[in-house]
Amino acid sequence: MRIPKEVKFIISQLKKSGFEAYVVGGCVRDVLLGSEPEDWDVATSAKPEEIQKVFSKSFYENKFLTVTAQTGSKNPKLKEIEITTYRKEAKYTDKRHPDEVKSAKSLEEDLARRDFTVNAIAAGLGEKLNKMDIIDPFNGQQDLKNGIIRAVGNPEERFAEDALRMMRTVRFAATLKGDWQIETDTAAAVKKNAILLQVVSKERIRDELIKIIMSERAARGIELLRRLGLLKYIIPELEEGYGVSQNKHHIYDCYEHNLKSLDFAAEKNFNKHVRLAALFHDIAKPRAKRGKGSEATFYGHEVLSARMTSQILNRLKFPKKDIEKIVKLVRCHLFYYNVGEVGESSVRRLVLKVGPENVEELLQLRMADRIGSGVPKAEPYKLRHLKYIIEKVSRDPISVKMLKVSGKDVMEILKIQPGPKIGQILDILLGYVLSDPKKNKKEFLKKEIRMLGKLSVEKLSSLVKFAREERDKIEMKRDEMTKKKYWVT
Asked: Would you say 346 and 338 are in contact if contact means Cβ atoms under 8 Å apart?
């Protein structure tokens, strides 16, 4: 095990002061799995006041016997290290928080209160501070090797202490590297006690759900929640689609389609907004379904799905900005587009409806939806063509607004009233700037305005024609480059 020097320093200083000290929990698990820990936790026999005497740069602002020591490290993950006194916890009357936290007599007693065997492993520094001593009273290393999530001791007692541990069971099975299985008695205890999840705060449930959604095996995590009886206490609406067939355009039922869409979004590492939209985009189909078999219809399901998505995300206490974006993606996911059939004005309205900042995520959702339907291609020609049209209608057009001068400047310099001549001069100036962008400077353009103001109507008309031809050439070249980008003709 490679332990950072900052952590070694913490442990060595506590040992020099006559205390026991070990790295514990998730950081030990991650290192043994070959992953870099998100943070490092140290358990010690020292009391909080004793820890603070050893580390002058530390603070103690909680009731959980945890002191935070500041290391001065340049590594953000190691700037602060939490040091906790060995502890044991009394009854959990509310199934969420211990009634009180008391110090324990030994490391083994501290490890016994932890959730899973893979998180109940400790590592201490040997005499020379370079050899690791592994303390593993619950055979967590064997479970790490076999990919088993197993509760420490009696699983029902662990879940009765903190009901959120049932979601954590699924989260670890979905997020830890490798193919993990939930041990039989642990899984049975989750099923038996799933109803206890109702007493857990929505915020804590949301945070665990996001970790599952953002994992590589997000869809497997959602399916595990369903199999273990937890999903009905988190997103019961999603379960409504289980076993509900669709029509000739889909080979999966409503529930499986949503999971397949999420699976693709996770595979492509799309962000949480797209992943959640993929999971919820057709959530209303069971309620909107009319008819049976291959000709069944789901008219208006995107509107109802957006409404249900809003209700779910509000219930789970998601931030307002996240809700607005995800709901908008769900509402707009069923847009229609066919090459040569849908014009630029319709595409422009779609961009305005979903918001230019959300267009790429909408297209990602569309790809996830296609794969979730069981079709072979996520990005067929017409979707690439749509991307081309969206970029075309979204970019700033080539116009005189790009110039550092305006019609007002022309009128003031030439002392003339509004008329066609102003537009002609601006068109000519634009031609100059398109040929050489460095010429788009106010002083240069003002000088050119004075010269152009002396020319005859015929000469100005000739220059305008040339300038407009140049603009058309550049527009055509820009369009050709965009077509090449998306492989369309």
From this structure: no
Which CATH number does the domain housing residue 215 bear?
A: 1.10.3090.10
Q: Does residue 101 or residue 281 have the better pLDDT? A: 281
> CA–CA separation, 292 vs 315, rounded Å?
32
pTM summary value: 0.77
- Residues sharing a CB contact under 8 Å with residue 323, sequence separation 6 or more, in sequence order: 310, 313, 314
Look at residue 110 and tell me if it is in a domain.
yes
Nearest alpha-carbon partner for 331 in 362, 373, 296: 362
Write the pLDDT tens digit of every residue in 363-394.
889 889 888 887 665 556 667 777 777 777 66
Task: Judge if 411 and 449 occupy the same domain.
Answer: yes
Give residue 42's domain range.
5-139
Give CA torsion, residues 443, 448, 449, 453, to 10 deg.
150
Domain boundary at 369, 394, 419, which?
394
- Domain count along the chain: 4
Give the count of beta carbons closer than 10 Å to the beta carbon of residue 272.
16
Structure confidence by residue, pLDDT tens digits, 306-337:
999 999 999 999 999 999 999 999 998 877 56
Asked if residue 240 belongs to a domain, the reply is no
DSSP code per residue over 377-419: -SS-HHHHHHHHHHHHHHSPPPSGGGSSS-HHHHHHHHT--SS
Cα(83)–Cα(41) distance, integer angstroms: 6
- Total residue count of the chain as it appears in this document: 489
Q: 436 and 332 in one domain?
A: no
Q: Which residues pair with 21 in a beta bridge?
A: 44
Given the DSSP bridges, would you call strands 87-89 and 21-24 parallel, antiparallel or unpaired? unpaired
